[in-house]
């Protein structure tokens, strides 16, 4: 089963566009009985996953939150992915690695992401052009999300630079839209719903991975309205900190479930009313 099939199945089964980010920083994990375990991050991730697996369309793991702790952190990442694969194999996993390099180097990045880490999808920057993307697209059962508009306030410094009458992000999007491969989607931010709407016009049928809801205060209503395709689908709404750190006590997993369920239902209310 490829990424698209797994995602479609998870969305239908859980009636959810929600993607939870397991951006688990060790110093932010609630102090509880997890402290006495040998792998704090893995234990925390398992609790969050077990509490929310029936509310999500997928999970996204940002590799930076694991690389920061060296080999120990990367071991936690590997074990978290293995836990998901073994316990909840029907739920797709996105590795947020934001890779982007020349073709020869990209080939090894793709091998790492898909063969070693065993992720179902990856996030990529596209400044090197299609040459840096093709090694990932050759994994036809996997999926690549291409960064076109990021969620941070400073994104406009470069992404909105005028290029022949178009902002740079839109010029890149127009070029990418000529690529015929089926196994790529777009990253567009909830913090910039107007730009999200522009990208949806350029990519009417692509899956959008949308960060910025929650801690970054993206506008949910405008995001769903701008991002849905003609079939009221095509969206993965990502949230991390506002869910996984919803509680600071022993009941953190229960609080995470409550926050995840609330956001899931808010998304559904908007999309079904459209």
Account of the 3D structure:
This protein has 274 residues and is of the alpha/beta class. It has one domain (3-273): TIM Barrel (Alpha-Beta Barrel), CATH 3.20.20. Helices cover 45% and strands 15% of the residues. The protein is built from 12 helices and 10 strands. Strands 1-2-3-4-5-8-9-10 form an 8-stranded parallel barrel, surrounded by 5 helices. It has a two-stranded antiparallel sheet with strand order 6-7. Strand 8 (184-187), helix 9 and strand 9 form a beta-alpha-beta unit. The longest helix is centred in the last third of the chain and has 22 residues, at 252-273. The chain is globular. The chain starts with a helix and ends with a helix. The model has no long low-confidence stretch (mean pLDDT 92).
**Do you know the CATH architecture?**
Alpha-Beta Barrel
The percentage helix is 40-55%
| String of helices and strands | HEHEHHEHEHEHEEHEHEHEHH
Number of discrete domains: 1
Tell me the CATH superfamily: Aldolase class I
Number of beta-strand segments = 10
Round the mean pLDDT to the nearest integer and report it. Answer: 92
Oligomer classification:
single chain
N→C terminal distance: 31 Å
Report low-confidence residues grouped into runs of 5 or more. none
Shape type: globular
How large is the share of residues in beta strands?
5-15%
